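Hey L., structure's done. Input below.
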Amino acid sequence: MGFVKRLGWYLVGLSIGIVFLAFFLKKKSQETGTEFCYLPNCRVLKDIRSKPFAVMGKEADTMSFTSLDANLQLLLREGTVDFDRSDTKGQPCKTYFIEQNGMGITIKNCPEKAIIEKAFVSKN
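Output:
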């Protein structure tokens, strides 16, 4: 009986701790804009967004994430990286295929900048 009582108190404390952490971390991320990216898709998109952008053929013309078209911003914020179609082992730049809602881009993720190679809308 003592084990069941201790287990119950443990679960109560664990539940309170989880609720506290969820509330605290959500509030902190809203105030500071902090993202907690642990999954590969989120990590790749966050890394790409943190770099200046260039468009293939106009590499000298770099731009920031805020100056990109709204559709490209949506892709880089909420898109899904297709790792099967991406070259994640490329050196020095890795190539990623990102898609969302019938739109897609192919982007080279280099150490200093991200180069947009191709953007398209699928015909569905």
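The first strand starts at residue 53 and ends at 55. The helical segments are 2-32, 40-49, 70-78.

-- N.
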